[in-house]
Amino acid sequence: MPAVKPSPKPRPRKRIQKRGRARLSAPEIIRLLGSSYGPFQHASRLDPAEEVVLTILSQHTSDYNSERAFHSLMREFGSLDAVADGDIPRIERAIQTGGLARVKAPRIRQILNLIKEKRGNLDLTFLKDLPLPEAKAWLRSLPGIGPKSAAVILCFSLGMPAMAVDTHVHRVSKRLGLIGPKVSADDAHDILEAMVEPDDVYPFHVALITHGRKVCHAQRPRCAACVLAPGCPSAGIAMKKPPKKKLTNAKRSGVGQGVTSFR
Ligand code: SF4
């Protein structure tokens, strides 16, 4: 009888610390940042289907470029229904300023047609009547729409309390200890969203993103000028880390650097 191999022991799963060691609460952060950048008033930007298209256009490019591409697309076609029926090379030409047009043009057309298939038209205002997790899940079933895009569409277009976590919000939240150091941006959405009242989700998002852009930069955060510094567990720490310099082979070996010995 062949020997039965013992089944391998299950590896212990690493526990990710979801919450960090924050000294300031989310409402305190909104209040303090509100004194610098507020008031944070919600202004609806676009119709939700238009916001879907703008969100696709904004992937891997700046707000400026994506907005230019969006306006160019609408000028060219006049309506999203016309984009849904449009031919891909024409869409591609219209959105060229937004970058990655060859990827984004077929995706935009595909998404618009999928929405029409599912709903019969491009009206997405029904999402506002769904519970937030269902509205998120509906949008995330569309290709190219992840947690951040779904939150942007629901929050900016429909005023729903969905927290969008981009690179700035993610970095600042980690530095403030609101989330643990290993929490991914995707996982941070629900964690940060649960820290504030629904009415404060939008101000929380705008406060953190503005702070990340103006003060808490990825490289060289301006901790000395930061209103949150007295309560920030990373104050000064991030400042002390010098940016990593790439060493050339010559520098590594000391060639041409006057390095003649290892003393
Ligand atoms: S103190 Fe420094 S690390 Fe902390 S939030 Fe302010 S700028 Fe960012």
Average pLDDT reading: 86
Shape: globular
Q: What is the CATH H-level superfamily of the largest domain?
A: Hypothetical protein, domain 2
Give the cofactors and ligands. Answer: iron/sulfur cluster
H/E order of the elements? Answer: HHHHHHHHHHHHH
Radius of gyration: 23 Å
CATH architecture of the largest domain: Orthogonal Bundle
Write the layout of secondary structure elements.
Layout: H1 26-37, H2 48-58, H3 63-77, H4 80-85, H5 88-94, H6 101-119, H7 132-140, H8 147-158, H9 167-175, H10 185-193, H11 201-214, H12 237-240, H13 249-253
The protein binds iron/sulfur cluster.
Compact summary:
This protein is an all-alpha fold. It has helices spanning 26-37, 48-58, 63-77, 80-85, 88-94, 101-119, 132-140, 147-158, 167-175, 185-193, 201-214, 237-240, 249-253.
